[in-house]
Amino acid sequence: MPTLNIRKKFGRRLREIRRATSLSQEELGFKANIHRTYIGAVERGEQNVSLDNIYKLAKALKVEMKELFSF
Question: What pLDDT, in 10s, does the model give residues 9-21?
Fold first, then answer.
């Protein structure tokens, strides 16, 4: 089985943390000031997320940025 690329791994981890906090993509988007469709694309590994947006997502999820990379 080929290795998953980093975007897919990051997206799966983001989805895992988001679901653990019982937030919808729309709710996370509101808290992070990021459109929900962008969050969906990140979770599917379709979007190459910037450091600025990683920071916003971590802050909205109330986790350290490094938690988003624990995969």
Answer: 999 999 999 999 9
How distant, in Å, are the alpha carbons of 4, 11, 22, 38, 56 from that of 16?
Answer: 16, 9, 10, 16, 17
DSSP state of 58: H
Distance, CA of 11 to CA of 16 (rounded, Å): 9
Residue with tokens 């990140």: 42
- Helix ranges (DSSP H) in the chain: 6-20, 25-32, 36-43, 51-61
Residue type at position 49: V
pTM above 0.70, yes or no: yes
